[in-house]
Amino acid sequence: MEVTRIFHPVGQGGFYTESFDNQHMVVYDCGGSDNVKKSIDHLFDRESSPQIEAIFISHLHDDHINGLQYLLGKTSAKRLFLPCFSQEIVFETLFYNSLQNPNRSSINSFVVSLIDSVQSGRNIIGDTRITTISDESSEREYPSYALNGNIPPIIPSGTHLTEDKFWVYIPYNPKSPKIKFSKVDIKYRSTLEQIYNETSAEKQAKDIAEFVKNHSVKTCKEIYKALFGGIHNSQSMPVFSGILPPNNMQLGHPLTPFCHFDIDIDCHHHDFLGHCIIDWHHCTPHAYFSLKKIICNFLYTGDYNAQKEANTKAIIKFYKEHQAWDTICGIQIPHHGSKHNYHPALYEGCYYAVASAGVTNKYRHPHVDTLNKIYQQKCYPFVVTENSPIRFEQYIHY
Fold first, then answer.
1. Domain map (residue ranges) of the chain
2. What is the pLDDT of residue 274?
3. Contact 173, 157 (CB under 8 A)
4. pTM of the model
5. Predicted pLDDT of residue 230
6. H helix intervals, the chain
7. 33 burial type by CB count under 10 A (0-12 exposed, 13-18 middle, 19+ buried)
8. How far apart are CA 56 and CA 289, in angstroms?
9. d(Cα 204, Cα 314) in Å, to the nearest integer?
10. What's the CA gap between 179 and 227, in Å, rounded?
11. CA distances, 83 to each of 59, 97, 101, 164, 380 (Å)
12. What value does the mean pLDDT take over residues 370-380?
């Protein structure tokens, strides 16, 4: 089996693909600047484009999903995996997207159609079936389904979704945060609670957009922080991707993957330590292996709130239960390298970490402190921007 993993140059967002023998493809997130459409065109404007078996979306913020409608219009996808839509998540999503794009409604309309499809029980958009991942449970028996098989419309967090008998995807959906209306200024509280309790996502979206339009951006940001305890992007669904080996697997075992990287990075832009950190070009980094690490095993994180100690402990415990955590070799740096989503435990034992960020984004992602701390942990951080020559590709053979 040959697997090609690509971190596409979409700027402030995320669009990651894994193709298997150039026949089947799995996607994690699909959003970013206008360059996400260029990346989609590059992938699918050819005769031998692979069939999309599955798309995982970490959360419904615009910069992680605003290319999905274009992708589904460009090619077919069998199944879309989304975190469950609790009342809190729907409200937070619509509020956040309206706050980020007060003058643009097209993307929110697509998000509303996704929410409506799930809430109405249709669980389909176009020709694509939708499966939602329920939030964290106390169960220790996890079901397993083939990606190309029959999958229920709702599956638990921790379900094993297999591409073949060796390669597996494991989504982790943490519990939804509680909204704190009591922290909001009393003059806004009743209006927001009324919107929160509306049963129609379309009506909610319109009322939230109207609320944002009628108040200053500063006021709305303060309300957002109050509602969610000052925690930004606290809800995001990570997904493990890779091989779960038998307990007795050793280096040199037939399943040990051979891997090399094709990396082109603008060294001047990312020269954050005074020198270019990129020294792997068409390399086979078996020398960096431990007996447990598997070079192809990767953890996608979306905008996971790792800074909170409890969250980091929870995700590590979760993937340890699946015998996956100690095998992970690479990780997506959460939230584009924000200093508010960093925790050192995420990078212990990892060999490389990748962030997607816009060259001149207003949030100053990735933060230099985050990159420095990761580098000091002997984990090599790479940054992929919207500049077309900048890319990170991984080729795996097993």
1. 2-83+135-171+240-397
2. 30
3. yes
4. 0.91
5. 67
6. 35-44, 62-65, 68-74, 87-100, 106-119, 186-196, 201-213, 217-227, 309-321, 368-376
7. buried
8. 28
9. 32
10. 5
11. 7, 17, 22, 23, 30
12. 92
- pLDDT for residue 91 is more than 90: yes
- The 8-class DSSP code of residue 275 comes to S
Pair 352, 379: CB distance under 8 Å: yes
Q: How many Cα atoms occupy the beta-carbon half-sphere of 344 within 13 Å?
A: 7
Token pair belonging to 108: 């929110």
Tell me the fold of 2-83+135-171+240-397: Metallo-beta-lactamase; Chain A (3.60.15)
Q: Flag whether pLDDT at 272 surpasses 50.
A: no
Instruction: Residue 357: name the closest of 321, 380, 382 by CA.
Output: 382
Q: What is the mean predicted confidence (pLDDT) over 103-119? A: 80
Q: Exposed/middle/buried for 361, CB within 10 Å: 0-12, 13-18, 19+?
A: middle
Task: Provide the token pair at 287.
Answer: 């020398």
Q: Name the more confident of 263 and 177.
A: 177
β-pairing verdict for 144-146 and 128-134: unpaired
Q: Share the mean pLDDT of the chain.
A: 84
Q: pLDDT-derived band of residue 247, with 50, 70 and 90 as boundaries?
A: low
Two tokens at 255?
A: 């399943």
Half-sphere exposure of 348 (CA within 13 A, CB side): 8
Are residues 205 and 211 in contact, defined by beta-carbon separation less than 8 angstroms? no
The two three-digit tokens of residue 213, written as one number: 């339009």
| First and final C-alpha spacing in the chain | 5
Secondary structure in 3-state letters for 44-112? HCCCCCCEEEEEECCCCCHHHHCCHHHHHHHCCECEEEEECCCHHHHHHHHHHHHHHCCCCCHHHHHHH
Q: For the chain, what percent of residues have pLDDT higher than 90?
A: 60
- Please determine, for residue 160, whether its predicted confidence score (pLDDT) is greater than 60: yes
pLDDT computed for residue 299 by the predictor: 98
On the question of pLDDT at 283 being above 70, the answer is: no
